[in-house]
Design goal:
The structure is a single chain. By secondary structure, the chain is α/β, with parallel strands linked by helices.
Amino acid sequence: MQDRIKVLLADDHKIFLDGLEELLSKEGGFLVVAKASSGREALDLLSTCKPDIVVMDISMPDVNGIEATKIIVKNYPDVKVLALSMHLDKGMISGVLQAGARGYILKECSVDEFVRGIKAVTNGQVYLTPKVAAIVLDDYLALKEGNAQAAEHKLTPREMQVLKLLVKGEHTKSIASKLSISKSTVDTHRRNIMEKLDCNNMADLTRYVLREGLIDLDDE
């Protein structure tokens, strides 16, 4: 018989806690080893109940879910944390994920999704409910665009031209010819670009450009 997933439930609403416990007991494959009504209580229970995963509400008294998650990740690295919240707040989502939670599910989720999330996070995967995943993706794309714009602002228009040709594999002589500048000027631009973007070689530079979406390599 496969071992059941040991779960610690943490939420400051007793009726909700009891409902989750009943849900998991009916589902099978889970064992609720403890229930906590605050972040502090969850932390106090961890050393004795030894769960595989903590299902953590974010808005709790005493120690909130974000702070509790930080402590769990630091002191109990084998214990996974799945955030379960009614909030679609960007600050809460980023806060608990940065604290080390491996998943974020909304309390409006279905039973199937709740079970799927627990199993995924327990198995070392990341699980984000679709609405949360959309917010995380939007934030990532905005950050990436911001990083690209910041990097672009560091470079002069001529340096951007040189950079694009460099990462396309053009040699110094070819770049000089295409831009009607001397080879020594190309070398100077190359050094300046490397310094401004904190890259040591062409491999670093290429990775930087691809990671930040700094230029469109397909644009001729």
